[in-house]
Amino acid sequence: MKNQIIVKGCLLISEPFLKDPNFERSVVLICDHNEQGSFGLVLNHKMSLHLDDVLEENIYPDIPLFAGGPVQPNTLHFIHNRPDVIEGGTEILEGLYWGGKFEDVKKLLNNGVLTAQDIRCFIGYSGWDSGQLAGELKQDSWIVSKNSAEFIFNTPAENFWRSILREMGGDFKVLSNYPVDPSLN
Question: Model confidence over 51-70: pLDDT tens digits?
Answer without folding.
Answer: 999 998 888 889 999 999 99
